[in-house]
Structures are given as C-alpha cells and as structure tokens.
Amino acid sequence: MDNYIILGDIKKAESVKQSLIEKYGIEKVEVKTVFADEVSIKGLLDEVDFLPLFSTKKLIYVKNCEKINSEDCKLLRQFFENPKEDILFILSGKEIKDVLADYVDVDVKQEGPLELYPAIFRMRSPKDKKRVISLLKEYVKHNPLDFPAVINASYIYIRNIIKSQKNVDKKLLDAYQKLYNLDFDMKIGRIGKEEFDVFLFSLLP
User: What's the CATH number of domain 4-103, 3.30.470.30, 3.40.50.300, 3.90.550.10, 3.20.20.300?
Assistant: First the structure.
C-alpha cells in the first residue's frame, strides 16, 4: 500500500505526494496537508472512516512527524499494519518514534545525493558499524562539504544504540560528547577534512 514515512527530506516527501496525486488522479479537495503539532492524530484516523467524495482515494500528508507522541504513533502503526485501500498516508519530518521505525521509507528512489537519514535511522546495533561507515563515506563522496549532515547522522546512530540498550556504557556517552566537540571544531576550522574523516570513523561504536 502507498503509505510512507519519509525522514530528513521534505522535497522527497513533496515529490512522493505529487506522484501519488497523479498516479491515482486524486482531486485537490481530497488532499489534506497538516502539521503534527496542530491536529489530533485520532481525529485524522477517524476521518478516514469516511470514503472520499470526489476521488477513489484520499491523501493525508502529515508534516513534522517528530511531534507525534508515542500513543498516537501506536494508533498510526495500527493503520499502517491494516491500511485502507482508499486512504493514503505520508508522514515527513526529522524523526519518528521507534514504534513506527519499521515503516520509515528507505526504498523510494530519487535522483540526487544518497538518502542518508532514513538509512541511518534503521541502524541501531554496534553490528551495523561497517554499514554505517559505508553509508557515511558514500555520502561524503557526493557531498564533501556537508559535515553537519554526517555528524547528525552519526548522532542518530549512537542515539539508536543507546535507546536499544538497557544499560548505557561510558564508551557510548563519550562518543556522543566527542561528536559534539567534533562539530564545534569543524565550525571554527580547528579540524580539516582529512582529519575529520579519520576522527569521525574512529568515534563510531
């Protein structure tokens, strides 16, 4: 079913939205765009019980999905697990609660740089380190000056490991702090690109 959670790429979310509108011939009145912190998710889900009036399908696009609380994410998961044929959902934002992590889109292809954040979002174990480093190196190759994105992706990976473990070891916390220092050092020019690559990849747990 055409339901998507797209993280870190608003343009991609808009592109997917437009492609679904064209694919199914959805009328403008059947497209609802809302911000997560301004609506009730339960209210939105109650709306989907009503069939579209003018098209065969209705599209609901929720922005800022990082604002959706855990309870509402559970409600959305029920919808994603049992989708309705006449209702399409797109969620976009910086991140999403773990209960919906399985539905984060990493497969919709689009021209341009590697889709970094959605891929990293699924990495939550030290066993993923080689894959994470590979993704980061590939991103750096295409975006050699986008250091903030690489550092933020590293933050996401370390945070995911911390959240998945019952006991947080000091090594993870140290890595998190050193990433913060690395970000600062890059901004003031204390560390160059070559040093950045070596230092970053040595930090990852």
Answer: 3.40.50.300
